[in-house]
Amino acid sequence: MAGSDPKLTAKLVLPDSKEVVLPVIVGTEDEHAIDIRNLRQDSGYITLDNGYMNTGSTTSAITYLDGEQGILHYRGYPIEELAEKSSFVETSYLLIKGELPTISEREAFGDMLTRHSLIHEDMHQFFAGYPPTSHPMAVLSAMVTSLSAYYPDCLDRQAPVDLHITRLLSKVRTIAAFSYKKSIGQPLIYPKNSLNYCGNFLHMMFAVPSEDYEVSPVLEKALNQLLILHADHEQNCSTSTVRIVGSSGANVYAAIAAGILALWGPLHGGANQAVIEMLEEIRASGGDFKKFLDDVKNKRDNRRLMGFGHRVYKNYDPRAKILKKMCDEVLAHLGIKDPLLDLAKGMEEIALRDDYFVSKKLYPNVDFYSGIIYRAMGIPTNMFTVMFALGRLPGWIAHWKEMVDDKETKIGRPRQIYTGQRVRKYMPIEQR
Ligand code: CMC
Question: What is the model's pTM?
Answer without folding.
Answer: 0.95
